[in-house]
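Help! Submission page says 'invalid entity' but I think these are all valid:
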Amino acid sequence: MAKAKSRSTSLPMFSLARERFEQAAAKLAASDGKIDHDMLNADEMVVVETYGPAAT
Amino acid sequence: MIVVVPDINVLVSKLYADKAAKSSTISQKVVLHLVSGSINGEPVQIAMSFKMLDTYREVLLRKEYPEALVEEEISALVDMMKFGPAGFDPHIVLGGSPDPALKDLEDGGVLATAYAAHAGILITDNLKDFAGQDAETYRTSRVQAPDGKTRELYCVIRARPDGRELVIVHPADFISWIDRKFKISPEAIRQAFAVIPQP
């Protein structure tokens, strides 16, 4: 860890970086890259039963 | 503040979901939480090593995503880490030495990164590669994919070299717990879930 001191993430530089990240992600999604459909299927799973508190 | 390491599979899944025009898959929700800067009111610091980012780059290039766009996203990701609440610098981690106890050398690097970053949470789809000796495992949930396949999930607690502990959680449980405002800590997990005995 470079610095242990906590600071707010509302700093303009973080917001700017997040904006750049979201823009780059949108451009990547619009590009000709390929998809792994098994991973996509797994990414759409839903929790049907929980074994801890507030179990379904 | 909580330091979270998202495994590469989370970022890659998120990209696939974006590309498939999905809007609320598990990985999309995870990344949305991480880049929001806080989780249930607690500041969150993303931590990844350059070694992990190299792996991310390799996966995307192999899938034929344009290199310039890949670099653009990685650069922004690095800046989000640097300008996060703890000011994390991926150079500091340097990838770390793989833990020989882990089955997959790449995952050893991910774990080393989590240890070096003093992370409290590691989010990954590859739970089995982080379980095993010297780890506690807890049964957490059952999930079902759109194709009907079900999977039993669990989480893993590992002791960090600095004496604290790391929770290794599946993205589906991470989102489920955040939505239910379940505090993700080793203590809360030990109280809430049944331990899976070591074979």
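Support: the input was valid. A stray whitespace character was the problem, and the output above is from the cleaned input. The CA atoms of residues 24 and 51 of chain B lie 28 Å apart.
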